[in-house]
Amino acid sequence: MAETFGCPTPAYQALRRGGITGEGSCGAIQAGILLLGELFGDPDPTGPVSPQLRDAVARYRADLAPVVRGSLETSCNARTADLGPFPGAERQAYCTELAGHVAHAVAGVLWDLDHPRARRPK
């Protein structure tokens, strides 16, 4: 996700909650929030939350809510329990599709807020 928007790609493997335990909030959704933090947040990690970041995350969450099974806070296991076994194709397809929605939501926020990383058509 970070590479898609030109950000560094440190090892965020811990965000793969579905791929590790399935417990906790969705790593893909959280990755989108972390990416918005890199793009709109105060560069000082102890600095206050910028108004731009607060707005970006609110827009992002609103964009994702209609396409996520359950609430944005629902664990991966709860969200996908009816999609078959953990390594199954149906569950993996849902998670892959959700990652696409995350990228689309981040891109939409960048576009709406006229962020320089948003690429406008020529």
Task: Report a brief summary of the structure.
By secondary structure, the chain is mainly α. Helices cover 50% and strands 0% of the residues. It has five helices and no strands.
The number of distinct helices, counting runs of at least 4 residues, comes to 5
Fraction of residues in H or I helices: 40-55%
Mean pLDDT: 83
Q: End-to-end distance, in Å?
A: 24 Å
Residue ranges: pLDDT <50 for 5 or more in a row?
none
Q: What structural class should be given to the helix and strand makeup? A: mainly alpha
**Which series of helices and strands comes N to C?**
HHHHH
Outline: globular
Sheet of most strands: none
Whole-number total of structural domains: 1
Percent of residues in beta strands: under 5%
Can you count the beta strands?
0
Q: C-alpha Rg, in Å?
A: 15 Å
What can you see in these coordinates?
By secondary structure, this protein is an all-alpha fold. The chain has one domain (12-112). 50% of the residues lie in helices and 0% in strands. The protein contains 5 helices and no strands. It has helices spanning 17-20, 27-40, 51-64, 76-80, 89-112. The chain is globular. The two termini are 24 Å apart.
Q: Could you give the topology of this structure?
A:
Layout: H1 17-20, H2 27-40, H3 51-64, H4 76-80, H5 89-112
Helix pairs in contact: 2-3, 2-5, 3-5
Main attributes?
122 residues; mainly alpha; globular
